[in-house]
Amino acid sequence: MRGQVPILQVKNLVKKFGDKVVLNGIDLEVGKGKVIAILGPSGCGKSTFLRCLNGLEEVQGGDILLDNESLIGDSTRWRDVRQRIGMVFQSYDLFPNLSVLENILLSPLKVQKRQRQEAEAQALELLERVGLADRANDYPRQLSGGQKQRIAIVRALCINPEIMLFDEVTASLDPEMVREVLDVIAQLANQGMTMLIVTHEMNFAKLVADEVIFMEQGNIVEQASAEQFFSNPQTERAQQFLNILQF
Amino acid sequence: MLNSGISVLFEGINMLRIIEGLLVTLRVALVAVVITIVMGFIIGIIRTSKNKFVQLLFRVYLEMFRIIPILVWLFVFYYIFPANFDLNLSSEVVAFIVFSLWGIAEMSDIVRGAIISLPKHQVESSKALGLSPVQMYRYVLIPQAIKRTIPPMINLITRMIKTTALLTMIGVVEVIKVGQQIIEVNNINYPIVAFWVYGFIFFLYFCICFPLSRFSRKLEQKWAA
Amino acid sequence: MTFDWQYMVEVLPYYKTALWLTVKLAGIGIMFAIIVGIVCSVIQYFKIKVLTTIVQVYLEIARNTPLLIQLFFLYYGLPKVGITLSEEICGIIGLTFLGGSYMAEVFRSGMEAVTKSQIEAGKAIGLSNSQLMRYVIIPQAFSYSVPGFGANCIFLIKETSIFSGIAILELTNTTKNLMGIFYKTNEALFMLVIGYLIILLPLTLFLTWLERRVRHAEFGN
Questions:
Q1: Selected residue of C114, C116, C125 to mutate for chain A interface (largest A Cβ count, 10 A)
Q2: Is residue A2 part of a domain?
Q3: Domain residues for A18?
Q4: Touching subunits for chain C (3+ Cβ pairs under 8 A)
Q5: Domain CATH code at residue A225
Q6: Residue A134: which of A97, A100, A158 has the closest Cα?
Q7: ipTM value
């Protein structure tokens, strides 16, 4: 079953900042339950691409379809879409004025209007799963970077999204904390969560991704299964990119 | 009616008198500003000293000027010296003294803040290069700090110029006093003259302060980037 | 320098009344200034058309002219075109006019200090604009604003001394009048300084404490 129904389709997506073309006609189909790693040098547009999928950037052309429904157009209710597509950022961005539990419950209670008891039970279960159940009443300032990032993932998961977007979530972490965050994401992959992951962790991408997209200058240069991409990249640019990363 | 009042501004030497008054205002401000900048830098650098006594002494000095209103300081200097020391200071001299003391206090805090906000490794790498303390201040710290002091310094100058309005209350014959004299002379024939004179002085102050505060904001934006 | 303590006890009631009036007028002025400040800063933050321009003009005028002239214009100028206001009303209007612009600046920069990524994180979990305001922007902007807000309150209380220019019997003007009648300069000025210290010293200490507490609660440093 995995990967047969495309849950997300991107067609000829164009994004410009002024005259500068950042995404130059991106096409992509994401099957339900697939994990896609998006790789490429800095400035290639991979983060911008993710941000477009969550309505954080306006696009200048093309289409995005979620379950065959277009998200492009003035009538799009991004607030509803964002409950189906969760996103985690490099800078974690927990709200410093709220406790861990309040951070996680903000959207379930205020946006989704769920029952406190039920939402809280889910939050605690998710916290348990990432090994932070005892931190529910702490404030973000009391946590390490890795812990903050795991909480941020829980915060996104507690809305019960169908797709998760990860934007370089380990890029600002100390090396010894990277593992604890990647473990959580790998766990999600095993449970069949559909995910798009922008990352610089090649070994991690190799391990969890079904498919790899290699981007450069706003284009998808190569798209292949993870296995093939890492063992036998087709394009010269991808080969160079992988070589640079190896000593 | 409105018209007949405004014409008073342009009658005889009235406009000239107002401008002269404004020059008195600006003279006080300018002298105080020059003293403020020079002494503010010196005291600001002294205040970066780690000596607890020096720190406390200047802190008390600064807080005195922060807590007590400037108008009160003007009164204190204006009335205390003649009453106790038989020393008659002209109101303009009192103004110089108070504005300078106030300006130096604020300016020294700006300079001190700019220097101590420089990254610590600037001091450490200067030391590592073998610079003497004087060389460190001369070549490394002060040049970097100056840029940070300029926008708040211009803001301070704007505040000092605005505050010169208070000089009229200790009898300096500056722009407001001149305005009041013109009003007194014309009040009977043109009661509305007060509206125009005060409106005009309001406008004059704006014309001086607005470009300054605009300039400081532009610099701030430019240097923040 | 000599002090006539007997005299100081005699005039104490005048100072009590003046101190109370100073606190009252400053308090009312600051309260209105906060309201004006909030309205203006929200207009600026959301860049609401036309209103932003009006706010901009107001801020420039209020910040670039002396309070004394503002008061003279209100108290001596406006009656000539048919608008007569009592001294105290003029004082409160002047203080609000001036203070509103300072408060607006502090609140606006507080809101702008809330990082873009915090706002995006809020959007990403589906918050509406008003929810973003309520749960993310305002609580954080509040902490950023505390130091500037405190400085403004102290500044505005000190500015009430300028009310003496329009015959309001607050601390400074009371002192001036007493000096004119009794020539007890040292005593009068001494009590004036003490009067301001009674209001401002505790407030300064409280604000320093509040600042430290809020910063720690929010950002842990």
A1: C125
A2: no
A3: 8-244
A4: A, B
A5: 3.40.50.300
A6: A100
A7: 0.88
